Amino acid sequence: MLSLRTAYSSSLARVMQWMRGGLPISTISAVSLASLSDRAGESLILFDLRELHEIERSGYSIPGALLTIHIDLRAMMRWVPRDSTVVLFAEDTIPQHDSRLRLPAKNLKMFALDGGLQSWCGAGLPLEPVALSDRKWVDNR
Q1: If 0-12 CB within 10 Å is exposed, 13-18 middle and 19+ buried, where does residue 92 land?
Q2: Confidence class of residue 1 from pLDDT cuts 50, 70 and 90?
Q3: How many domains does the chain have?
Q4: Cα–Cα distance measured from residue 38 to residue 36, given in angstroms and rounded to the nearest whole number
Q5: Which of 40, 114, 120, 132 would be 30's cystine partner, CB 3.0–4.6 Å?
Q6: 51, 41, 24: which is closest to 111 by C-alpha?
Q7: What pLDDT digit, counting tens, does each position of 74-103 carry?
Q8: Are the C-beta atoms of residues 125 and 65 closer than 8 Å to each other?
Q9: Which residues contact 38 (CB under 8 A, 6 or more apart)?
């Protein structure tokens, strides 16, 4: 019988392969991401793929992460500078059905945060509050 961790890794690998059009995307641990964020500066872009209710429930995200609720992520990717490092994360696993995962790679180093925000929190890394107080902006689609 497969362990939950093995099943998760296998599922995540399939999602990552689908995201890159058949090429596997690497995962990155929370500790490695924290180290990378200290060195990479502006060339590191974090996309928080969580749903609105997940963001409201926790109230926090990884410092510097861009929320992707109500945003055309595919269009936003056109503005990402070439040779950037892009890290995608969700609460835990990245949902396989999430259409925002089909992103153009254009010379980007792309990673998925292994274990999502839960692994970041579990590693005791810093969080920043998410300001969703402007409900007009959040609710307009």
Answers
A1: middle
A2: very low
A3: 1
A4: 5
A5: 120
A6: 24
A7: 778 788 888 889 999 999 867 555 555 556
A8: no
A9: none
Residue 45: give its domain's CATH number.
3.40.250.10
Please check whether residue 87 is in contact with residue 46, taking contact to mean a CB–CB distance below 8 angstroms: yes
Q: Which of 81, 84, 14, 11 lies closest to 44 in space, CA to CA?
A: 84
- Whole-number Cα distances in Å, 80 to 76, 107, 108, 109, 116: 7, 10, 9, 11, 22
User: b/e map of 59-81 (b: 16 or more CB within 10 Å)?
Assistant: ebbbeebebbeeeebeeebeebe
How far is Cα 57 from Cα 104, in angstroms, rounded to an integer?
30
Is 81 within 8 Å of 41 (Cβ atoms)? no
pLDDT in tens, 24-68: 567 899 999 999 988 876 689 999 989 899 999 999 999 999 998
Determine the structural domain holding residue 73 and report its residue range.
Answer: 4-139
